[in-house]
Write a structure and sequence with these properties.
55% helix, 139 residues, mainly alpha
């Protein structure tokens, strides 16, 4: 009888806590394409220039290429040439992902490793990789 009561108690506890965990999971970072409105307003202080793109490329080749591929088209990591990126496409959203990473994924943040200026160079480099809608259609 004690085993049955213990089993019922455990079942009720599990049922209650599964709702708590489901609520936490609902608030967890979703793996589908979405936006981060709080970061969309952040503007890149660096002009998109060949020099900035070259600086960003250096870091990308050293730290990002293994996951995102030589041309940024993906592999282990997501395709960074897409016009619509998984965590938002604005400069501020991309900067946020580079700085803080993406919780629950292999994408770690580089905010402590790279200066703010260097992270903005990477944003410019990634923007230079974006496919235009025209290119995507093969025109």
């Amino acid at each position: 009888m004690k085993k049955i009561i213990a089993l019922v108690m455990f079942s009720l506890w599990s049922l209650f806590n599964s709702g708590v965990y489901a609520e936490e999971a609902k608030d967890a970072h979703k793996p589908h394409q979405h936006r981060h409105p709080e970061h969309t307003k952040i503007k890149n202080p660096l002009a998109m220039s060949e020099q900035s793109i070259a600086e960003g490329r250096k870091f990308f080749e050293k730290h990002c290429m293994a996951c995102h591929g030589k041309a940024g088209t993906g592999g282990i990591g997501s395709d960074l040439t897409s016009v619509a990126r998984k965590h938002g496409s604005s400069d501020g959203e991309v900067f946020h992902v580079i700085s803080d990473g993406v919780q629950g994924t292999a994408m770690r943040g580089f905010g402590n490793e790279l200066s703010e200026k260097m992270r903005w160079h990477v944003v410019n480099y990634l923007n230079s990789l974006k496919k235009s809608e025209k290119n995507k259609m093969g025109q």
